[in-house]
Design a protein that fits this description.
The chain is an alpha+beta fold. Helices cover 34% and strands 22% of the residues. It has two domains: 302 residues, Zn peptidases (Aminopeptidase, 3-Layer(aba) Sandwich), CATH 3.40.630; 127 residues, Alpha-Beta Plaits, CATH 3.30.70. It comes from Micromonospora matsumotoense. This is Acetylornithine deacetylase/Succinyl-diaminopimelate desuccinylase.
Length: 443
């Protein structure tokens, strides 16, 4: 096989992955909040730690242009190259879906206590738990250590290679709730850490996305945001019976929710395919209405925000039009029929796939077999979307794989849990993929 790594090189990389270093990497990633658009402090902290641990490798903090959404954002880039060889990019991200700040997190988590700190537990301290491990600190730590192990082994052996680690800013989906086509203002495009990294540089030959997954993903759905807006005149709660609709918009919100659920059922049924690698999904993620400090005034506007994953062939414009048509028909004859209705939709990115026979897919499959003693389980109908789509859409063959999570702490679901041996396994697995890529390109 063209990617069979010499035993001495493989063993050197395996020995370079040690538990203490992996936990130190996780501690550096978890030492402070790293919310979307404010990752720079974490990038510097991790870069400083890594430069001390692996001074022979390159570690660089690359600021992302400042915008209102990204006021203090940066990528962390690690690099190692010797000779002219095709580049492998190992990618994860610095930001977390939740921020660690109560003002943003509490409406989602229902908790106002501080985010749980990193800790070890279990009879042999074999479980690590904490905040933000699922998205994506656990996988990012394994990717960092695996990348460094492969780079270190290649450098020590004088083997030509080009390996890059990218822990990117703004790697989680985020929408601008203030913008939408019906405002006459299109949402500002988000540069994103991955796009910033790819700008003005040659594309890597292949990429590995390090995020928790049930197997090896070679395809991922796209994503889009939808906003449904109902409007009417505002009325004092004192005169709610004379409002339009009677009782006010929120009294009849259930009618709108059921109409949205009806649309979801039909939308998913039309895309049901048990053999498809990716699947569609739609969820209501936020409802905004009124002013908490003035509940004596019934709101004149209700915004419902939705997130939808798209499959190959989906057209965001057609989906938006279909949702609008469903709501017009479904709300007819209800108290909401006399209200204003506006539906706005815009895509984050379309779905994309890597051919199953691409070299990076073979390298990942063989590395998984070596790590587990069995092939990776097949994955069908996957509904999670990441920046792997961004890489694939730019022609970079990409696979996604990452350590499985344990069930979260039942007393605080924000405390996500991982088995340390699994993180170690995946650090070595990422190193193995990197070595196989290097071997196949070098011979």
């Amino acid at each position: 096989m063209d990617d069979e790594v010499p035993a001495t090189l493989r063993h050197a990389a395996e020995r370079a992955v040690d538990e203490a270093t992996l936990l130190d990497a996780l501690a550096a990633l978890s030492a402070q909040p790293s919310p979307y658009g404010r990752e720079r402090a974490t990038a510097h902290r991790v870069a400083d730690w890594a430069a001390t641990r692996w001074p022979e490798l390159s570690w660089r903090v690359d600021p992302v242009p400042r915008t209102a959404a990204t006021p203090d954002s940066a990528n962390l880039v690690g690099g190692s190259d010797l000779g002219e060889r095709p580049e492998l990019l190992i990618y994860s991200h610095l930001d977390t879906s939740l921020t660690g700040a109560t003002d943003f997190d509490a409406p989602i988590t229902g908790r106002r206590t501080p985010a749980p700190a990193l800790e070890l537990s279990g009879p042999a301290r074999e479980v690590v738990s904490g905040f933000g491990l699922g998205v994506a600190r656990a996988a990012a730590a394994a990717a960092l250590v695996g990348y460094a192990a492969a780079a270190e082994a290649c450098r020590a052996a004088g083997r030509p290679h080009r390996l890059t680690l990218l822990l990117a800013a703004t790697g989680t989906h985020r929408d601008d709730p203030t913008a939408g086509p019906d405002d006459g203002v299109a949402p500002a495009p988000t540069t994103g850490g991955v796009l910033h990294h790819l700008r003005d540089r040659p594309l890597p030959a292949a990429a590995v996305v390090a995020k928790t997954s049930p197997g090896i993903l070679t395809a991922e759905p796209g994503a889009m945001f939808l906003r449904v807006r109902l409007s009417s005149g505002f009325h004092p709660a004192l005169f709610r019976d004379t409002a339009t609709p009677p009782g006010g918009l929120l009294t009849h919100l259930g009618v709108l929710v059921e109409a949205l659920e009806e649309f979801r059922r039909a939308h998913l049924a039309r895309r049901a395919d048990p053999d498809a690698l990716v699947g569609a999904e739609l969820g209501i993620g936020a409802v905004r209405a009124g002013q908490p400090g003035k509940p004596d005034l019934l709101p004149g506007v209700v915004d419902v925000h939705l997130y939808l994953t798209t499959v190959p062939g989906d057209d965001p414009g057609q989906i938006t039009d279909a949702l609008r048509a469903t709501l017009v028909q479904r709300l007819r004859g209800t108290p909401l029929a006399g209200c204003g209705l506006a539906v706005a939709g815009h895509p984050a990115h379309p779905s994309a796939a890597t051919p199953a026979d691409a070299p990076i897919c073979r390298h990942a499959g063989r590395a998984w077999l070596a790590a587990y003693g069995r092939p990776a389980p097949p994955v069908r109908g996957w509904t999670g979307s990441t920046d792997g789509v961004v890489l694939r859409r730019r022609g970079v063959p990409t696979v996604r794989l990452g350590p499985p999570a344990l069930p979260p702490d039942p007393t605080d679901p924000r405390r996500e849990r991982y088995a340390v041996p699994e993180l170690m396994r995946f650090a070595r697995l990422y190193a193995d993929i990197a070595l196989r890529h290097q071997q196949a390109s070098t011979g």
